[in-house]
Amino acid sequence: MRKLLLTAAVFSMMASAASAETIKATVNGLVCSFCATGIEKTFRAESAVEDVKVDLDHQLVTVHTKADQNMDDATVTKLLTDSGYTVTNIAREK
């Protein structure tokens, strides 16, 4: 029984360590589909990114990372500011 519990704990830790992350950045300046396309292209060029969506109505950029990779706030902010936008908030979900 003890071995079974230890094995379950190890698998649980491995699953959480390899989990993907969702990053939601609120951005000022998003006004058109051209903006959305540019941001999506910029983020898709990053090796850590699995998918990216831009919601113009809510000025929200949602980035899904690959399971074994992550992206720090500084990188997200730099990609968006270099594209001409102002980041007002970044939130993360596992």
Provide a short characterization of the protein structure.
This protein has three helices and four strands, in the order H-E-H-E-E-H-E. The protein has 94 residues and is α+β, with helices and mostly antiparallel strands. It has a four-stranded antiparallel sheet with strand order 2-3-1-4, covered by helices on one side.
CATH C-level class: Alpha Beta
Spell the H/E element sequence.
HEHEEHE
**Which spans have pLDDT < 50 for at least 5 consecutive residues?**
4-17
Percent of residues in helices: 40-55%
Portion in strands: 25-35%
Termini separation: 30 Å
* Mean of pLDDT: 86
Count of strand segments? 4
Number of helices: 3
Instruction: Briefly note the CATH topology name.
Output: Alpha-Beta Plaits
CATH A-level architecture: 2-Layer Sandwich
As for the number of domains, it is: 1
Structural class: alpha+beta
Radius of gyration: 17 Å
| Main sheet specs | 4 strands, antiparallel
Order of the strands making up the biggest sheet: 2-3-1-4
Shape: globular
Walk me through the topology.
Blueprint: H1 2-17, E1 22-28, H2 33-44, E2 49-55, E3 60-65, H3 73-82, E4 86-93
Antiparallel strand pairs: 1-3, 1-4, 2-3
Which terms summarize this structure?
single chain; 94 residues; alpha+beta; Alpha-Beta Plaits; 4 strands; globular
Q: What do you see in this structure?
A:
The chain has helices at residues 2-17, 33-44, 73-82; strands at residues 22-28, 49-55, 60-65, 86-93. It has 94 residues and is α+β, with helices and mostly antiparallel strands. It has one domain: Alpha-Beta Plaits, CATH 3.30.70.100. The protein has a 4-stranded antiparallel beta sheet, with helices on one face.
